[in-house]
Design goal:
Protein name: Formimidoylglutamate deiminase
Radius of gyration: 21 Å
Cofactor: Zn(2+)
InterPro entries: Amidohydro-rel, HutF, HutF-like_N, Metal-dep_hydrolase_composite, Metal_Hydrolase, Metallo-dep_hydrolases
CATH class of the largest domain: Alpha Beta
Helix content: 25-40%
Number of helices: 14
Domain Formimidoylglutamate deiminase N-terminal: 1-45
Strand order of the largest sheet: 3-2-1-4-14-15-16-17
Number of strands: 17
Strand content: 15-25%
Distance between the termini: 48 Å
Keywords: Hydrolase, Metal-binding, Zinc
CATH superfamily of the largest domain: Metal-dependent hydrolases
Amino acid sequence: MTRLHFASALLPSGWADDVQVVVTDGTIAEVAAGVAPASGDERHQLAIPGIASLHSHAFQRGMAGLAETRGTTADTFWTWREAMYRFALAMTPDDVESVATLLYVEMLEQGFTRVGEFHYLHHDHDGAAYANPAEMAMRIAHAAETSGIGLTLLPSFYAHGTFGGAAPHGGQRRFICSVDQFAKLLVASREAVGRLPGANVGIAPHSLRAVTPDELAAIVPLAYGGPVHIHAAEQMREVEDCLAWSGKRPVEWLLEHAPLDQRWCLIHATHTTPTEVASLARTGAVAGLCPVTEASLGDGIFPAREFLDAQGRFGVGTDSNVLVGIADELRQLEYGQRLKHRERNVLSNGPGVSTGRALLDGALAGGSQALAQAVVGLEVGARADIVTLDTTHPSLAGRRGDAVLDGWIFAAGAGAIDCVWAGGRKVVEGGRHALRRPARERFNTTVRRLIA
């Protein structure tokens, strides 16, 4: 049992002072406000809930910053994708584990306490299955266990190169499965993560580019009621190709042909019409927004204000992991809307409402829904995912309540996070994960060899 005392904490009911939290077996067992610290309590100034990164491709952390030199033609998502394929084809299972371990350490240091790993690097270099079809999934699970981050594994079904069941690109050979292979992969993946406390498994049909309608219908039941994530409408070329194939835009097609509901998360959904925005919000599905990656890849700007006005739900993900941080994603989300609408505080819920608070609340709720976490936050029954902020940071000094969140998200930069508990385990103290040094050393050795 661990007893923590916070001078101030963000509870589901709002900010409260003198909050004692009792953690038992990784779960919050008691929460009491207005309580003086007791002997044996570990004391901190200010606590907020940990947040989920609902969309991550862990292996891509290894190539962060390696695609920033202009080519001979216009650089786009599609040229970046070729570089990504080359990097993925070179990685061994050991490489994937070392890269994912550092990534998850970094996520925890930035306040992410759970990751939705959209995992599609399944097979050996030649595309043949490993003896254990979940070899790569097992490496992701090891990285999560070592770092302490909560894991929602989302094995991805990827079968084709583009719409209409086209043959896959040679660079995609490590991703490709038949429906039968995918079913076996799911069984093995559930075994791989089964011993991790609080871990769960969903499915991720990669996109309508990579999955035919018949295949989509065949694999959705394999989620067994768990989360279903799919990339949709990330790029205008994708929208145009989908129109040429089906006469429908990607989100429009999914709304008409897929059983969208609260289990689903549409990743990006960047290029959507007002009708699609309103209809998607009504389904209860989550929009999985990855603002830093979407900016990095030149995807475009999601119509977030319109979606939230329609009572839509969103979460944030780190996607390509070119930069990892809750504050970075939420700030980029708001700043994109400011540039688009030429206004300030666009995603605030109304007059007098903190934009930082509105963003944090939305990301907490949407991320937990997308990763099938029924109880989250600083409340009884939730996994003990807790983040403390350093109130001596210059951008947080003298602030209380929501003003602390605004200072963190919009002004603090690095160094505002002090301690992090993930599943009741204190993994970050003084802003540093206990495994930062060995994780970096192993990562650096791996990446030096891959780059060479």
